[in-house]
Amino acid sequence: MRLDEDVVGDVINRLRRAEGQLSGVIRMMREGRDCEEVITQLAAVSRALDKAGFALIASGLQKCISEGERGQVDVAKLEKLFLSLA
C-alpha cells in the first residue's frame, strides 16, 4: 500500500517532532528533573505518536482495509486498526 507523498511527509514530520520530544524526556530524566515535568512531556510524546497513527489511518483508510479484488471493507480489520491506537 502506498500513501500520498503529502501524507507521508506530514506523518514523518510528526514523528520527527515526537523523536525530539522523546530525546528531551530522556535528557530530563538523566538530569533528575521533576517527575511531574517528565510525565507531562512523556504524555506529549504519546499524543504526538497517536496523531501520527490517526493521520495514517484517516488518509489511507480505504487502502489499508480493503479486502480482495472487490474492495469491500473488512470491518474486523478496521476495528483492530483503531483499537491498536486506543
Summarize the entry for a quick read.
With 86 residues, this protein is mainly alpha-helical.
Give a verbal description of the structure.
With 86 residues, the protein is mainly alpha-helical. It has one domain: Metal-sensitive repressor, helix protomer (Methane Monooxygenase Hydroxylase, Chain G, domain 1, Up-down Bundle), CATH 1.20.58. The protein is built from 3 helices and 2 strands. The chain has helices spanning 5-30, 35-65, 75-84; strands spanning 66-67, 72-73. It has a two-stranded antiparallel ribbon with strand order 1-2. A hairpin with a 4-residue loop joins strand 1 and strand 2. Helix 2 (35-65) packs antiparallel against helix 3 (75-84). It is elongated and about 55 Å long. The two termini are 23 Å apart. The relative contact order is 0.14. The mean pLDDT is 83.
Q: Judging by the overall fold, what is the CATH architecture?
A: Up-down Bundle
Strand order of the largest sheet: 1-2
Mean pLDDT: 83
Helix count, DSSP H or I runs of 4 or more residues: 3
- Protein structure class: mainly alpha
**What letter string, H or E per element, gives the SSE order?**
HHEEH
User: Any idea what the shape is?
Assistant: elongated
Keywords: Copper
Family: Belongs to the CsoR family.
Protein name: Metal-sensitive transcriptional regulator
InterPro entries: Metal_Tscrpt_repr, Metal_Tscrpt_repr_sf
